[in-house]
Amino acid sequence: MKHWLASTALALCLAVPALALAQDYTPDSNAKPGGAIVITYKDDVATLDPAIGYDWQNWSMIKSIFDGLMDYVPGSTALRPGLAESYDLSEDGLTFTFHLRPGVKFHNGREMTAEDVKYSLDRVTNPETQSPGAGFFGSIEGFENAGPDGLSGVKIIDPLTVEIKLSRPDATFLHVMALNFASVVPKEAVDEYGADFGKHPVGTGAYSLAEWTIGQRLVFARNETYWRAGVPYLDQITFEVGQEPVVALLRLQKGEVDVPGDGIPPAKFTEVMANPDEASRVVEGGQLHTGYITMNVTQPPFDKVEVRRAVNMALNKERIVQIINGRAVPANQPLPPSMPGYAKDYKGYAHDPEGAKKLLADAGYPDGFETELYVMNTDPNPRIAQAIQQDLAAIGIKASLQNLAQANVIEAGGAGTAPMVWSGGMGWIADFPDPSNFYGPILGCAGAGEGGWNWSKYCNEALDAEAVKADSFKDPSDPARLAMWSDIYVKIMDDAPWAPVFNEQRYTMKSPRMGGEDALYVDPVSIPINYDYVFIKE
């Protein structure tokens, strides 16, 4: 599914009648149960705890182990019921009453109840959990005082009914209830494993974790008592980690791998597309994605807006896009062009090295300065970082490259120890199709704390207040609301905590035996793959 559909889906999917229709998904008629597949990744998985995991590699894994109250139609951005089979919304738009499915069981065999829903929401918003997704739940009553005593706005009505009261209308709330962070977990399992729950996950999802050999592989097994009839199809999924993308592609060509999780290596893209048989198995999908450079605004010299603007002006984005075979378009703002709220008339910063040098001189750095640029070590990111390094050197900024595993870059960004981060391989792909999703976690004050995803540590309280107003609409597609979001992102670009670089398309490949519609392999929500609905044709 191309990501331009997201804007039309958004206006429809929050209404109750549309929700009732969305649950009627018809899987591929050729789908049949059984079999096992192999997926490869270069890096190991950091955690499978839904309250903590927040990178594209573990996102779809977590989504297959856990469920939330809401879900999405496979391969789509349209909402459908999850663990809640229905809900009621009060006339003032502040109180949601969710009615849970009876008989849903955790992988440990215990039946899920409303108490588990409350526990899970209390846990993810408790500061002690240090969840990077806590800010998503900011509209729930009592969020400001969230702690060991839980959220005052979440109440158990009976074992199958939970009420969630908001402090303000929130146009994104049902999407939030479909996020991994809102997954329902059993308290006894969290209590048993503590900080290691992410290595011993227990959920209600289509698959359970059968094995995890750190640095080698994870094995998922079919949940035989899964509450959704007919899925999943596969008996087993093996995720082999530590696999270089080029090696993974060779193994795919030999029939040893079914999907290379890191996609087609850019250096091999032209070769793959020149082979008709292989090209026929390439899957392309649009993404609500932006790749960007963060600058830590709390540290000199990036505490000066002139320096940050100079970095924006130094970049030759068209040249950088060519490094990835033209599989992207240059970006001029945080939002991708297909996202509602994109500021179509905003031109951004032109490529102007001489103007950038003048800004550096005005900021007190006529001879430039030295800094570090952190980058994920999977191709093509080091090559992209080298191009950025060259552009910065042209205006006097000497940036040494720190090529690290994804988890290490994320850790440095969250800790605030990285002066600059190239987000490639971790660049923002929307959690849900709404402009607010590009703000709170990565540009808002809520994401700027320790461990947060706002690696620029940019916190503008005035814009935070504007963001709250923009989301206090009952209709997410209200033109006035979208105009407010456009204005917020233009103001952010004036402050320049980021240098947006490009908006990327996703390309992957599957083995001849893999079945299921292409949209499942570039799922806009279960990024990168919807494991619950793919199957083996043989």
Structure explained in plain terms:
- The two termini are 25 Å apart.
- Strands 13, 14, 15, 16, 17, 18 and 19 form a 7-stranded mixed β-sheet that branches. A 5-stranded mixed β-sheet has the order 8-9-10-1-11. Strands 4-5-7-6 form a 4-stranded antiparallel β-sheet, with helices on one face.
- It folds into 2 domains: 231 residues, Dipeptide-binding Protein, Domain 1 (Dipeptide-binding Protein, domain 1, Alpha-Beta Complex), CATH 3.90.76; 216 residues, Dipeptide-binding Protein, Domain 3 (Dipeptide-binding Protein, domain 3), CATH 3.10.105.
- The longest helix has 17 residues.
- With 538 residues, the protein is of the alpha+beta class.
- 54% of the residues are buried.
- The protein is built from 16 helices and 22 strands.
- It is found in: Periplasm.
- GO terms for molecular function: peptide transmembrane transporter activity.
- Its main location: periplasm.
- This is ABC transporter substrate-binding protein.
Write the topology of this structure.
Elements: H1 6-13, H2 16-22, E1 36-41, H3 56-65, E2 70-72, E3 79-81, E4 84-89, E5 95-100, H4 114-125, E6 154-158, E7 161-165, H5 173-176, H6 187-193, E8 207-213, E9 217-222, E10 236-241, H7 245-253, E11 259-260, H8 266-273, H9 276-279, E12 282-285, E13 289-295, H10 305-314, H11 317-323, E14 328-330, H12 353-362, E15 369-376, H13 381-393, E16 397-404, H14 406-415, E17 420-422, E18 428-429, H15 461-470, H16 479-495, E19 498-504, E20 506-509, E21 514-515, E22 535-536
Parallel strand pairs: 1-10, 1-11, 15-16, 15-17
Antiparallel strand pairs: 2-3, 4-5, 5-7, 6-7, 8-9, 9-10, 12-20, 13-17, 13-18, 13-19, 14-19, 21-22
Helix pairs in contact: 10-12, 15-16
